[in-house]
Amino acid sequence: MRNSALTFGLIVCVLLVGSLTGAGAAELVKYTVKDGAIAQSLTGKKGNPAKGRKAAIHRKKGNCLACHKMPVPEQLFHGNVGPDLAKVGERYSEGELRLRLVNSKAINEDTTMPAFYRTAGLHRVMKQWKGKTILSASEVEDIVAYLVTLR
Amino acid sequence: MTYKSAAAYVVGGLVALGMLASASAPMAEGYENMVGDKKSGYHYSTPATQSIQDDDFNNPSFLWVDQGEQLWSKVDGKAGKSCATCHDAAAKSMKGVGATYPKIDAKSGKLINIEQRINSCRKNNMQAKPWKWESNQLLGMTAFVKLQSRGMPVNVSIDGAAKPYYEKGKNFYNQRRGMLDMSCSGCHVENAGKMVRADLLSNGFSNGFPTYRLKWQKLGSLHRRFRGCNKNIRAQPYKAGSDEYTALELFVTHRSNGLKVESPSVRR
Q: How many contacts, defined by CB atoms under 8 Å, are there between A and B?
């Protein structure tokens, strides 16, 4: 009895620690790519566009401004490696935007753009980032929800 | 104040206004370092940054160069020698040397860069302790030696025993790595000239190293720059002085062949 209570306690601890290690440390959500898009939300819910805007700007999250010009006038110095995102919500569907964020190399394997929700097939990832994704599934959904509003 | 000196003031002021902080050193004004479609990192710098490099009296790298120059004739180690004991005046003996490294070390058969050449000399010929990577002494001596080749074209060889190192460096350069899954070429070849936020991506030439980076507030080696780049893309960096980075240095420096040595340069 005592033993099983201890075991139970240990498992709870492990689960807690697991959930604290952050963004992508957990098992990746499985998704289906069809016709250049991921139709289903990674979380099963709609993202929050306001949070998505913040995560898109955040230098340790989306850091989209590094390479893209965006309708974010309060931030100076937008990159121009990638296309302007001003009307990106008109150019692509929600599902197409989701795939571009999750793994844009599925569309163009030569693109410079990182895959924001992927852990496999990477070379010499820094120890503290191993097995993690740049964005969590809910951050992906928030940013997708924000990009859809760019019209 | 005489009439003459007052006039000089006025003229001087007008000239200064017209040219805005143009310096008087040999590299200043209209300095150009381009060969074919290769453009030195100098041309990717802002005029403000360029002007710091243009004048040796403004260029903070020369604090390290001065230290290197002093160390050149300082006896160190059990053999009781200084660099000057064997090499005499650096202005003569080191002229052109910095433009040809990394190269194969005849004794060990291994590829070495200038830093490693200096330390091998200290160890084997002076019987002195090698300097630590990124120490003021090693940076200063490297900058002092490379300065003796300033203005000469970079000219590294990738023939013979150097070839496998070159291939290794080339693979490194083109290999995507890190959480951001990027390669050197992805930024510095395919997207050179574009902006990453406020940073203009250069073509990634090495002809100005060691360089005084404003961000570092210090002179720094090319291998330090490699480490920084690797960390930016969340890739596990190698050690400064590692075989991987020396091979990469060979590839990058061979890409820079023909550009003038600019060491010690100033960059953002």
A: 65
Q: Which pLDDT does position B30 carry in this prediction? A: 78
B197 contacts A81 by C-beta, under 8 angstroms? no
What is the C-alpha separation between B54 and B261, in angstroms, rounded? 14
Q: Tell me whether residues A126 and B195 touch, CB distance under 8 A.
A: no
Residue ranges and CATH numbers for the domains of chain B are 3-147 (1.10.760.10), 160-267 (1.10.760.10)
- pLDDT tens, B150-168? 999 999 999 999 999 999 9
Q: What is the mean pLDDT of chain B?
A: 91
Query: Which of A77, A71, A107, A79 is closest to A92 using CA atoms?
Result: A107
Active-site residue, B86 included = no
| Higher local confidence (pLDDT), B215 or B10 | B215
Q: Which residues of A touch B195 (CB under 8 A)?
A: 77-81
Interface test with A, best of B180, B185, B190, B268 (most A CBs within 10 A): B180
**ipTM confidence:** 0.84
Q: Residue B267's beta-bridge partner residues?
A: B213
Find the residue in B nearest to A81 (Cα).
Answer: B194
Catalytic annotation, pick one of B83, B86, B184, B229: B229
Predicted TM-score (pTM) of this structure: 0.87
User: Rounded mean pLDDT of B70-92?
Assistant: 98
